[in-house]
Give the backbone structure.
Amino acid sequence: MHDAKNRELKIGDTVLIAAKVTQLSPGEEYCNVSVQSVFGRRPDGAKETISAINTGVMLRANPGDENDLESLG
């Protein structure tokens, strides 16, 4: 198993999934989103769609955003 840059993945690795928000579903105390992957899968290049992800488990990654994963773990 390898990531988008062909680096080997092992159990326990921390990964980031590049995705664009395609739908917002706000609640009173939470917000869920649907996202579509930026990178296409192998071998056909199709984009993956992931739905109902709570925004508490993601970081905004627009250009200029700083993300310190160590401080969140």
